[in-house]
Amino acid sequence: MSKPTLHLFTFFACNSFFGGGAIVRDVLKEMKGRFDLKWHYLDEFDETNDTEQWVRQHVACEPIHILRKRRFLYTLLDHYYYFRGMPALARSFAKHLPPGDVVWIILDNKMIPFAHELCRINIKNKIHVSVHDDSRNYYKRYKRISSTTNDYFKRIFSRVDSSDFIGKHMLEEYQKEFGARGIVFRRGVEAEKIQVKVPRQKDTYSLLFAGSSHSNACWVRLVRKLSAFSAEFEILVLGNPAFTQGFEAELSQAGNIRLKKGGTVPDNEIAQHAAHCDLAVFFFDDLAEDRLRFSVSTKLALYGRLGLPMIGYISSLSELKELERRKLAFSLERSEAEFRNWINDFSGEEYKSYFRENFDGKKMMEDLKACVAFT
Length: 375
Description:
The protein is an alpha/beta fold. The chain is built from 14 helices and 13 strands. It has a seven-stranded parallel beta sheet. A six-stranded parallel beta sheet has the order 10-9-8-11-12-13.
């Protein structure tokens, strides 16, 4: 007997290593026994690295061609795809959707009008949506689209069969604003397997940053702060952060900081690259885009698996402030003396406890697989 197909729709490409790409790959591996798998993605953000081997072997990846933006067409293309292009694509897809197949949409970017149109025409198939970023703000430059998005969210959450949210604060916000119901799901860890790298007092610290960064201003603040410390810092960057010339100039003035770019590295190889690292760099600060304010970065689970304490900036709106309160992350708003005290007070057991309470991968995956759309 053939299995139904799970159709995943994302704005990011199937070869996206970090962020949403890492989350959905984990889920697809769990869903393989129940469904045949198809990943439909917009080629607007196609990346240059190879798609993970497991995805190539087990998932049918189907790009959706999107015209790349050009400066003089930026506004026109955004409005076209929001009000015409993506709804038309949704209607076309719905015509050929077999009964029993399931639709899973990462609700961000151009997938918002796509999801809305599927809900508006009321397809009979089950729909599950995942919310990773607060995408109400993605189109905030456009008054008409921005106001329409709120109406779209109300219709979407009144129709979908189930949904998940990357953070507790985001779920609470969407419950209040749109009547959403759902669970918290994000990349998790096995706390019992974590080997915590308890920090020690040193003259030179090795730092890891893995993934993408949303704000060069974060990096500038980081370098300015660390350059005032008496210790030296070596920063290994895995991923493709878009450093500006301004940041490069700032870095060249910091005599105690060396930055090494390691390029994009597959998830299962990061541990060996980071084996020598003492701390991890983390920031979701108030300088980043509004859409990130309720998000929980996949970096957290990665750093947790590696057992790395964190330094950086955390938004005052983020549930991750708890890391700071429990002395598991150090805010670079503080002094070097406080940094030294933080190192002395750091608790490996508290670190494991935090990730056990907030990033229990096994429990979250069981909750997701029990969602209405996937059963």
